[in-house]
Amino acid sequence: MRKKIVAGNWKMNLLKDDAIRFAEELNQGLFSTDNRTTDVFVFPGFTLLEAARQNAEYFKIGAQNFYPKQSGAFTGEVSIEQLKDLNLDVVIIGHSERRILFNESNQFIQEKLFSALDNDFTPILCIGETLDVRNNGHHFSFISEQLAAALNAFNAHQLEKLILAYEPVWAIGTGITASTEQAEEMHCHIRSWLTNNFSLELAEKISILYGGSCNEMNAKELFSCPNVDGGLIGGASLNAKQFLSIINIMNGLF
Ligand code: PEP
Fold it and tell me: Whose CA is nearest to atom 3 of ligand 1?
């Protein structure tokens, strides 16, 4: 049985007091939830990590980014060792904002995956096509290529902790969501890719989240798709009440 997961990506939003208030509200909400079957992660910015982690009781805090070198002259960067030092063990890798705005290449993303897995972190690897790619009908091959570029240096055993997030770039922060058909067929494609390139066992184990303008209005239909195992939520994760509603939609399914 795959894990059901709802994760919130705060990006470069909120301040320390907001993080503490959010944690208190979410703790309270989760405490009074009967059917707490969904794993919940929140990814605040670096400066909020410690306050958020100290206050998170029923959910886990992870980092949005890190630099895949152990230590050294990399001004402004944060290593996985430093994240470990904050008692963290979950990271997002390959988010389209990092790929596009910060020119993170497939090779660099693979390096980050190595670093995360080597250090026993759970990576959430994001993949997703742009609107051009979809309009040209190349979305399935594009996603296969992104998966191959990130994962081809690993074996199935090394990838047991991996979580994937399908996040079509055209749906992120746009208010446009993939339809249930588009989400389900891509998640099926990703699972078949994992079966063909690794094993059915691994493909059945890896949770594949959907991300892109997911909110409390559309979460139920998206999460009801058999191959959608949860969501990576941006904008709608900034408010504890909204985020809790999305989590409870997941808790209420299956
Ligand atoms: C994201 O950036 O991972 C995301 C899914 O954002 P939003 O929900 O705001 O589209």
Answer: 234
Centre of ligand 1 to C-alpha 179, Å, is 15
Q: Quote the pLDDT of residue 125.
A: 98
pLDDT of residue 253: 86
- pLDDT at site 116: 98
* Ligand 1 atom with the shortest distance to the CA of 165: 3
Q: Which atom of ligand 1 is nearest to the CA of 9?
A: 3
Q: What ligand 1 atom has the least distance to the C-alpha of 167?
A: 5
Q: How many domains does the chain have?
A: 1
Domain span at 242: 4-253
* Helix/strand/coil for 83: helix
Closest to 211 (Cα-Cα) out of 9, 2, 4 = 9
Determine the residue of 9, 11, 92, 101 to mutate for testing ligand 1's pocket, defined as the one with the most ligand atoms within 8 A of the Cβ atom. 9
Distance from C-alpha of 88 to C-alpha of 85, rounded to nearest angstrom: 7
Smallest CA-to-CA distance from 207 within 254, 160, 150, 251 is with 160
Environment class of 139 (CB within 10 Å of its CB; exposed 0-12, middle 13-18, buried 19+): buried
Residues of the chain with pLDDT under 70: 254
List helix spans (H) across the chain: 16-31, 49-55, 80-85, 96-101, 106-118, 131-135, 139-151, 180-197, 200-205, 219-223, 240-252
Residue with the smallest CA separation from ligand 1 atom 4 is 234
Determine which residue's CA is closest to atom 7 belonging to ligand 1.
234
CATH at residue 146:
3.20.20.70
The pTM score is 0.97
